[in-house]
Design a protein that fits this description.
single chain; mainly alpha; about 65% helix; about 0% strand
Length: about 170
């Protein structure tokens, strides 16, 4: 049977209770509620994490912050989201306009255009991300077999249309 988790810090428990009464931010309430449950000592770490809606590892990260830095350290916004997007504002508008007109055929061309015209360094993965986000479609036909002949292609298309309709 798993061991119940108890914070064993009465001074921190009082800080958590007073901070929880005054807190209005939802994510801060989540952190404080997890620590309040930890101060009670009635539940295991996994049960506390499940009730609050976080992973067990994140629960122990928060416990470490509370023990080391107190409530202020627990509520400090250490990380909220990733870096800001590189494609914004006028660059984004120009990108959308270029996609509508069909300026590019390959993602590599978009990558070079962004670097040359707007000094935006974006990897191919990032270009494909923005293409998907903006609903862009590159206009390069798919590769076909070199020995494929037109009559065989037509007969194949005719066969698939008749077989799927039956």
């Amino acid at each position: 049977m798993p061991k119940r988790f108890h914070l064993n810090r009465p001074d921190r428990a009082k800080e958590v209770i007073t901070a929880l009464a005054d807190c209005e931010d939802v994510s801060d309430q989540q952190r404080l509620l997890a620590m309040r449950l930890a101060c009670g000592g009635q539940l295991t770490a996994a049960q506390i994490a499940e009730q609050v809606g976080i992973s067990r590892r994140q629960f122990f990260n928060w416990v470490g912050l509370l023990k080391r830095d107190g409530v202020a350290g627990l509520l400090a916004n250490n990380h909220r989201g990733g870096p800001p997007p590189k494609v914004t504002g006028k660059v984004l508008e120009a990108f959308q306009a270029g996609l509508k007109v069909g300026c590019w055929k390959r993602a590599k061309e978009i990558q070079h255009w962004l670097r040359r015209e707007h000094q935006v360094k974006l990897g191919l993965k990032g270009v494909y991300y923005w293409l998907g986000k903006l609903g862009g479609v590159l206009k390069v036909p798919r590769k076909t077999h070199a020995k494929k002949t037109r009559p065989r292609q037509r007969s194949f298309k005719g066969r698939s249309a008749t077989s799927s309709g039956a």
